[in-house]
Model the fold of this input.
Amino acid sequence: MGTAYHWALGWLGISKGRGHPLPPEMPRCASQPAPGPTLEPASADLGRRLWQEASPAAGTLVPVYLASRRLTLPDDAPLRFHPAAWRNRANGLTGPAMLAQMTDPATAKPLGVHVTYLRPDGSEKAEGAGAKIKLGRAGVVRLVPDEEVAEGLGLAEGIETALATMQHFQWAPVWAAGDAGSIAGFPVLNGIEELTVFADSDDRGAGLGAARKCASRWAKAGRLARITAAPAGSDFADLAWRAA
Done:
């Protein structure tokens, strides 16, 4: 554990036990954000219904699933649990799922729901295609609330990757964009002077390419933009799991 863990800390350029400061300030958009992909209205309606039906994540299969990834459930994360979320006929009509609220990066307006289907015991994500889907419009998952975001912000693709970066490598705050496309279109936010993108390296270059597009936009706006890429064939959630 020690070698891999300290290697990852060095890769991130931080020291163990020292995170990014979080003085209070609300980020606002400096320009109009790139619109997220709009899905069928029925998809957005389904997302809202599942979110309303879902229960708080504590004491459900959500912390069980996160523990299988060597992660813990944050107290204030916008995560919920649905015991029988609609899936599809090919993979079973319903199944247990972790739900995450997706919001507009600038306004925090709810846009949709990210769904991670789980195995019946919560030990892993569900098998089969479509184990992770988005219902509604794409947005960010604010794993850290706005009042704890000040001059610097981290951005990762997956919820698990964002949590791993904060919990194992003490780098915070980090939001989850959901996928490479959402990172590529992430808008410049007023009040945020530094952006660090934690790029996945397990998707044939899509993650790094998206990070470069995002960083270029922020740099052109006069902001400091960094890219921290995981080693080839992995992401930071993988590193945390191996090191734990």
User: Anything to note?
Assistant: Helices lie at 2-12, 41-53, 61-68, 159-169, 180-184, 206-220, 236-243.
